Amino acid sequence: MKNKASITSPHDKLVKELFSDRQLARAFLEEMLPSDVVSLLNLESLQHQNNSYLSPPMEEIFSDVVVEVNLKNSDDSLQISLLIEHKSYKDPRVGFQLMRYLAEGYWQQLKNKQPLRPIVPLLFYHGKQRWRLKQMEDFFPNYPPIFQRYIPSFGIEFVSLIQMQDERLEQLRDGVLSATLGLLRYSHDWPTLLKRLPRIMESLSSSQGTGFVMSLFVYLFSVTELTVEQLKENLPEDIKTTFMSTYDRIMAEGIEKGIEKGIEKGIEKGIEKTILNAFDNGIALETIRVITGESTEKIKEVLQRNNRLA
Q1: Sign of the C-alpha dihedral, residues 186, 1, 213, 284?
Q2: Which family does it belong to (predicted)?
Q3: Distance between CA atoms of 145 and 83, rounded to whole angstroms?
Q4: Tell me: the pLDDT tens digits for 212-243?
């Protein structure tokens, strides 16, 4: 694997970007939550919340994305927290960490004088080892059962990619979701990923738009030895056309032309054109940062100077 300094925690960033997309978040919850829970939710009402229930120490362990969803035929709503596990290894303390997280979430609701709403924790794990989450009572095996009533108990929805069958991933109805989880599933196993890449990319044939799809390509280049030519060989024709059209506009007309000029002014103009082309094609600022290697501040300055941002 390459030592890529241009992206920090690319796996976690990709998951958070996926869940921050409203359409993909709905598709993810519809597929990953239990069917009896999904049947009670109006996922079309999903709204992202600008809050987090992570304490500073927990930020080293998790990222979280909080959404609010209405119940069907009701004015009531609940919150769903996707917690992305940073360390990608089995941590036996995760139940206690989630208990602290939920306590902070309910405390914030009380402190802000909000109606109390259930918080559904959904833990996302993309590590290499299989993992069975322990229930809280499992930590006290030597005590008589009568003491279990004093031990906090709560449900956790656990998504472990390493324990998810390929058939399950391929059957996901949203093609972008299927491809994203497939790439994450094998991100630690480059030979298998390369072998399965055509099947994974095939899922993108039904996708709409290029913004998040381009984020997938950037992710691939960041965590593997994959080249643009190898990626082209594994893309379905309709996605290949979209990818190369966008790639050509963003890269060939930008950085590569600047480099060909061989002078500092040409390179600078090429990078600026790359930033503008990427932004005009709906590419996220974080992805533009990865493509160009420029700081977020520099990218915003270029966009403001060219009337793309206020």
Answers
A1: positive
A2: Belongs to the Rpn/YhgA-like nuclease family.
A3: 31
A4: 777 777 777 777 776 777 777 777 776 667 66
